[in-house]
Design brief:
8-stranded mixed beta sheet
């Protein structure tokens, strides 16, 4: 199987020409260090690590898997050395607070590293990725004492992190979690069971910082009673030295469809007197802390999906170039299957979806950066609204395109794609979880229609559509892009009509929002992807006319954009039709008729 090669040129184009990273660095003082030279250096080294260190472990890790033996989790050979390469390079703290040893770089700079490493080896990449959400939560909500003691070790990568949220009876319904936290002076003792804990235990690092949701005594009912606690694997002295083992242990490992090299643990807290923990944020306000973690991780999951999709695309192209089967269209010669139109359709679908979703994810990251550090408060508010709107779309649509791309990779390989020895089935298996964890895509869809559209009367979405209209008008000025302008205009109008229908119907039909949410998310995803491809076409056309840039690369961008508009953007009308159908046929069947 060909090894992964990080698409640095494509990433650089999406960051600089579409997401606007140079404008961020030029206008936000906190990010002035993110110069073009610095970013190029970071992308180059991240790509080297992906290509040479992380990717070679992908197949062997999947075959070897993990094991719980004598209370310790064993991970595949090479993972410890790869993790040390990440930690020693300062990658975990790339965007962390410099006060605690972070580098203070933009989210938009760390996003491509997340994508590349997920593409190289998703199971491995989930370990350092988990730290990013925890860092955000600790920086935002932890006491000064906890930040001073724990953040330097987390930002350096010396200690790993987990998120312990889910319980067997609760799933996504955190209101019914049963893990309890009993106060003991200035700290708590925790008792309970947590399931599906990614990298819940291992020996890549000498300590693991668990962030655990639990309920303290006399907590209000439902999610209002949740609190967040920091529970270290090993007790930590004030000087940072490690002490005895805390009362939190893995009791079993999940046997999963994919991500075989990432230990997913059932964790027991308090079997021997209680796991010592420290409150993060205010008591009973753990939901806010959790969403600080989750929003960051949701963007990361979207990037995972995009990375796997790109890896699958690369593998499919390599196979299509070498696999000779069938004859040319004129029947004169036997040809590699990349010459067949249907195979080209599959490859271009993978390519176009990956490029569009990548650009959208980077745009979300840049908006997060502006929201955090833009000098003007109103500008921060506007960018935060845009980032909040895009996050469930990046997670939901980005992970759904991973399902399509990996399935097309298997299809491109034909029968050999269905055989484990070829390795491509792993991409499909690993990608499957991205639509489920960190909030299923049904939850992402409800978040989009509920919190991001209905709650503000569609304001943030209308701002996005207004920006899309400006770019749609720009397409009209180039005769070669006029067909794209017409198709884009129709898609924008359909999205606006569906938004207005949602705002009108949801208050009077209690099932409407839930019935249309997923297709509404996919509609906005397809149209937002079309927006990014339109912008890519505008940039490529301008640079080609000016003879600025590598012509072959720019022509490929233009051709991919045309394919997106011909073969993918039409999906918007189908998604819009399902939204307009409402809830009637979904709710018509009686429960006992299923």
């Amino acid at each position: 199987m060909p090894e992964y090669r990080a698409p640095v040129e494509d990433i650089r184009f999406a960051l600089n020409e579409l997401a606007g990273l140079p404008q961020l660095a030029a206008t936000v003082p906190a990010y002035q260090a993110a110069t073009a030279d610095v970013v190029d250096s970071i992308l180059g080294e991240a790509a080297r690590l992906a290509n040479e260190v992380i990717s070679p472990l992908n197949r062997s890790g999947d075959v070897t898997g993990v094991e719980l033996r004598d209370g310790k989790v064993r991970v595949p050979d090479g993972f410890a050395e790869a993790y040390q390469a990440i930690a020693s390079g300062g990658w975990v703290g790339l965007r962390g607070d410099p006060e605690f040893g972070g580098q203070g770089l933009p989210h938009a700079v760390s996003a491509p590293t997340s994508e590349m490493w997920a593409a190289a080896n998703t199971a491995f990449a989930t370990c350092p990725e988990l730290s990013s959400g925890a860092i955000e939560a600790l920086e935002t909500h932890a006491t000064p004492q906890l930040r001073a003691l724990y953040l330097p070790y987390v930002l350096s990568g010396e200690w790993a992190v987990t998120m312990c949220l889910t319980e067997s009876q609760a799933g996504s319904d955190l209101a019914v979690i049963q893990t309890r936290a009993e106060p003991r002076g200035d700290r708590f003792r925790l008792f309970g069971r947590k399931i599906f804990i990614t990298w819940g235990d291992h020996e890549l690092t000498p300590n693991i910082v668990h962030l655990v949701l639990a309920k303290a005594p006399n907590a209000p009912p439902g999610v209002r009673g949740i609190s967040l606690f920091l529970v270290p694997k090993y007790h930590v002295a004030p000087d940072g030295k490690l002490g005895a083992r805390n009362d939190i242990h893995p009791v079993s490992l999940e046997h999963k469809l994919g991500l075989h090299a990432a230990p997913t643990c059932v964790m027991a807290l308090g079997d021997n007197g209680g796991a010592e923990g420290f409150l993060v944020g205010r008591l009973h306000e753990g939901l806010a802390c959790m969403f600080t973690m989750m929003n960051c991780m949701r963007l990361g999951v979207g990037l995972q999906g995009i990375g796997i999709a790109d890896r699958a695309y690369q593998q499919a192209v390599a196979y299509a170039r070498e696999r000779v089967q069938g004859r040319s269209a004129d029947g004169k010669e036997r040809v590699a299957i990349i010459r067949h139109a249907d195979v080209r359709r599959m490859l271009l679908t993978m390519r176009a979806l990956t490029e569009a979703s990548r650009a959208l994810a980077y745009a979300a990251a840049v908006n997060l950066d502006f929201a955090k550090h833009a000098p003007d408060p109103e500008e921060r508010r506007r960018h935060l609204a845009r980032a909040d709107l895009l996050t469930p779309i990046v997670k939901g649509w980005g992970s759904e395109i991973a399902q399509e791309a990996t399935a097309l990779c298997v299809q491109t390989h034909g029968g050999t794609g269905y055989i484990e020895e070829t390795g491509v089935a792993q991409f499909l298996r690993d990608a499957r979880i991205t639509t489920i964890y960190e909030g299923t895509n049904g939850i992402q869809a409800m978040d989009l229609v509920g919190r991001k559209v209905l709650r503000d009367g569609g304001g943030a979405l209308e701002d996005l559509l207004s920006e899309m209209r400006n770019d749609q008008k720009a397409l009209e000025t180039d005769s070669g892009l006029e067909p794209m302008s017409r198709a884009f205009g129709a898609a924008i109008r359909a999205t606006g009509e569906c938004s207005r229908l949602l705002l009108h119907s949801a208050p009077t039909d209690q099932n409407f929002a839930g019935a249309v949410a997923f297709n509404f998310l996919m509609l906005v995803g397809v149209v937002a992807g079309g927006w990014q491809m339109a912008r890519a076409a505008l940039v490529a056309t301008r640079k080609l006319k000016a003879k600025a840039g590598e012509a072959s690369f720019l022509r490929a961008k233009l051709a991919t954009a045309h394919f997106y508009y011909d073969h993918i953007l039409p999906r918007a009308q189908a998604h819009a039709a399902t939204v307009q159908a409402g809830s009637a046929s979904i709710m018509e069947l009686e429960e006992d008729q299923f």
